[in-house]
Amino acid sequence: MPITPLDEHGHRWAVTTPASTYLIGVEIDPVTGEAAPLQKYWGPRLSVEAARQAVTASGGPATPLGARRHVSSFSTPGEIEELLPVDGGKRWGSPSLQVSFDGARSLELQHAGSSVHDEGDGAERLDVVLRDAAHPFEVVLSVRSREDTDVIERWTTVRHLAGREPVAVGVTRLDSGSWFVPDASAYRYSGVFGAWAEEFQLQRGPLPVGELVFTSRQGITSHQANPWIMIDAGEAVEEHGEVWGVALAWSGSWRLTTTHRPEGGVAISAGFGHEGPRWTLEPGTELSTPPVLGLYTGGGFGAASRSWHAYTRRHVLPVAGEDRPVLYNSWEATVFDVTEAGQLELAKKAAAIGVELFVVDDGWFGDRDDDTRSLGDWWPHRKRFPHGLRSLMDGIRGLGMRAGLWVEPEMVNADSELYRAHPDWILRMDHRRRDEKRQQLVLNFARDDVREWAFGWLDELVTELDLDYLKWDMNRPFTQAGWPELGAAQDRLWVDFTRNVYQVMARLRRAHPGLRIESCSGGGGRVDLGILRHTDEFWPSDNTDARDRQGIQHGFSQLYPPNTMSAWVTDSPNPTTDRLMPLRYRFHVAMAGVLGIGGDLTTWSAAELSEAADLIEQYKSVRRVIQHGLLYRLAGAPGRERSAVQYVLGDDVVALVYNPASDAKRGPRWLRLTGLDPEAEYEVVHGGDAAGWPGRLVRGSRWYGSALMAVGIRPAAWEPVGADYRSDLVVLRRVRP
C-alpha cells in the first residue's frame, strides 16, 4: 500500500513509492498542545519495519519541536522540517502559511484528526486536519502517493469554518507545502532561468545559506524562471547520485523559496501567488492550492528527468500514449497576410513533404492586418474570408492533413469591437493607467461572464470548422491587475484567472474529445505541469534557431518529456538570429521532440523540399521511440560542444548526434551510449556506412550493448575536420535470440 500508518495514535505514516520512502508525523508540544506536522525521512525505499524503526528513533508524538537540533533563544531550527511552517509562535523563518484574524497575524494549530483514503488505480491520499486553537479556521494537509511513480503529490486546503463567532480571515501566503532535504555536507541547486527567446537556460550552483527565491509576478509562469528546483550534495552527475526535486503544478504567479539554515538543512516551499495579494475568506468558504510535487532518486539528474517524464505521461497529460503529428505552422511564412489561396499553396507543399497537421496562425480573424487591432473579434476576417473559413479547412483536410488555428482568448486590443462593447472586462484599477504591452490589454478571465464568453466562441469555432488543434497563445503578462467591483476581495483574480483558463480548456476537451491544444505564451512563458493537465504540448520558445534551441531543449528536458516539446524547422538565415545553418542540422535538432515545420516552403528549392521529405520520413520511422522512450542526455554542452540525445523504447534505440563547431579541439570524441542491455547485441538500422562510418558502424552490423556503453561509437559528425553544424541520426535495434 502506498500509505501505511506506523503507530496506533494516528501520528506517523510511511508514504511509499517504487524507489523511495517519505516518512511524516505530527509532533505535539506537551506544554502548549500545538501540533507540528514534520517530515521524518525522505530517501531510498525502506521496508515498513525499517520505517517504523526510523520514526521511533526520531521521537514520539510528544517530542518538542526542534529537540534534535541546537536551539537558542534566538531560533527554532526544527521549523525547517515542518510540512507547512506557519507564521506564529516561536518561528522566524519564511512561512508557508500566513493568516490574519481581525488584523492579528498568527496561527496556533492543533491536531484534529487524520485519515487515509483509497482513491483507486493504485493511489492513496492522506489528509491531516489541523484547527486553530481560538479561531474558526481549519487547515488540511493532503499527500497522495501512487504505486507506479516516485513522484509524491501534496497540497493544502484552508477553510473559514461557519457557525462560530464571526471573524475576518485574510490569507497573505498559502503555499502548497514545504519539503525538507536531508542533512548533507553541502547543497547544490539546479534550475532554469531565461528571457523571451532564451528560455530554459540550465543553471547549477552552490545553494547559499539563507533564503533563495524563484518567482513570477506576471500572472503567468514566465520566461524568466520555471517552477521547479533540484537539490543534490554537489556530487550528482547525469547518471549517478542522489537528487531531490520539487515542482509546482501552477500556471499563474508563483513563488518557490529555498531555506538553507545556518545550523544545516534545506527546505523548499512552493505555492501560487507572490508578495502583496491578500485573499479574504468568508465564513463557509475554502481555498485549495495547486499540487506541489516531490521526487527522490539515487540515479542522478538523468534518472530524475526520466521519472518526471514518466509521471507526466501517465498522470498529467490528458491523453496518454498518442503519437504527435508532424505539424506545419504558417506564421513565419505569412505573418498577418493570411488568405485562402496563400494558405492552401503552403498546405499543398506541406502535404507533399509529409506534414500531417496544418495550423493557420495569426491574421485570420476580425480586421486583423497587424497586431494593433481586432484581438477579441473572433470571427473570420471579413475582407479575406467573406464566406468564412470552412472552405480553407476543408481544403487542408482534402490534402490528407488535420486542421488547426491560432487563438489568443485572454487578450484584447483597444481597437476592437469587443473592447468598445466591454471596456470593463479588462484587468484594471480605478485612477490608474491602462498600460498596453504589444498593443494588448488583458481580459479578466476571473470573471464568470468573460469565461463564458470565451468558451462560447471557442466551442462554436471548433464545432463549425471541425478543428483538430488550437494553438492557444498568451502574449503579455498582467498589468494593473485589479477588479474594482470586488473591492477588498479583488486579489482572488490572481487565482481565479488561471483556474478559469483551465476550466475553459477542460470544457472544450470534454465537448470535443478529438481536440488537441498547444500551450504558448510568446514562446515558453506558460510551461508547467498545471497547464499541461489541459493541453498536449508546449511551444518552448519563439527562437527557432537550431543552435540556440539545443540549449533551450536541454533545460526543458530536465522536467518535461519530449512528446510535450514542439520544435520547428524554419528558414535559413534564421528570422530571429540571422544565423545560417544546414537543413539537415535544423531537422535533427527539431527531431528531438515533436517535429514541426515553420519556414516559408514557397521559397525552398526542389532539393530542399526533397531532403525535407526524406528527413520527415526518417522522423516518422523513429517518432514513437523519441516521443515515448526513455531520454538520455549524452556528452557535452548542447549547442556549444559535441553532444547527443538518446532514446530507448523496448528494443529500439535512437541517438541524435550534434557538432556545431568544426574547429573544436576539446570535448567528447567517442559517444558512449547508455541504458542498453550489456549482454544483448544491437543491429545498426540507420546511420552506419551511409553516414560515412566505414570500419566503425556499418548498417546491418551487430554490436554488444556492453561495447556500445563502455567504448562507444565515433560518429562521423564528431570527426575533427569538417564543416560547422554537422549532425547524424543513429538507429539501433536489439536483436533477440
Characterization of this structure:
The protein has 737 residues and is of the alpha+beta class. It has three domains: 313 residues, Beta-galactosidase, Chain A, domain 5 (Distorted Sandwich), CATH 2.70.98; 213 residues, TIM Barrel (Alpha-Beta Barrel), CATH 3.20.20.70; 102 residues, Immunoglobulin-like, CATH 2.60.40.1180. It is built from twelve helices and 38 strands. Strands 7, 8, 9, 10, 13, 14, 16, 17, 21 and 22 form a ten-stranded antiparallel beta sheet that branches. Helix 4 runs parallel beside helix 5 and helix 10 packs parallel to helix 11. The longest helix is centred in the C-terminal third of the chain and has 23 residues. Its EC number is 3.2.1.22. It holds the Pfam family Glyco_hydro_36N.
Q: What are the SSEs and their pairings?
A:
Elements: E1 3-5, E2 12-16, E3 20-28, E4 35-44, H1 48-57, E5 97-101, E6 104-105, E7 109-120, E8 123-132, E9 137-146, E10 151-160, E11 169-174, E12 177-181, E13 188-193, E14 201-206, E15 210-216, E16 228-232, E17 243-248, E18 254-260, E19 266-272, E20 279-281, E21 286-288, E22 292-297, H2 300-315, E23 327-329, H3 331-334, H4 340-352, E24 357-360, H5 390-398, E25 402-407, E26 411-412, H6 417-421, E27 441-442, H7 448-465, E28 469-472, H8 493-511, E29 516-519, E30 537-538, H9 546-556, E31 566-569, H10 583-590, E32 594-597, H11 606-628, E33 630-635, E34 643-649, E35 652-659, E36 681-686, E37 702-704, H12 705-710, E38 726-735
Parallel strand pairs: 23-24, 23-32, 24-25, 25-28, 28-29, 29-30, 31-32
Antiparallel strand pairs: 1-2, 2-3, 3-4, 5-6, 5-11, 7-8, 8-9, 9-10, 10-21, 10-22, 11-20, 12-19, 13-14, 13-16, 15-18, 16-17, 17-22, 18-19, 26-27, 33-34, 34-35, 35-38, 36-37, 36-38
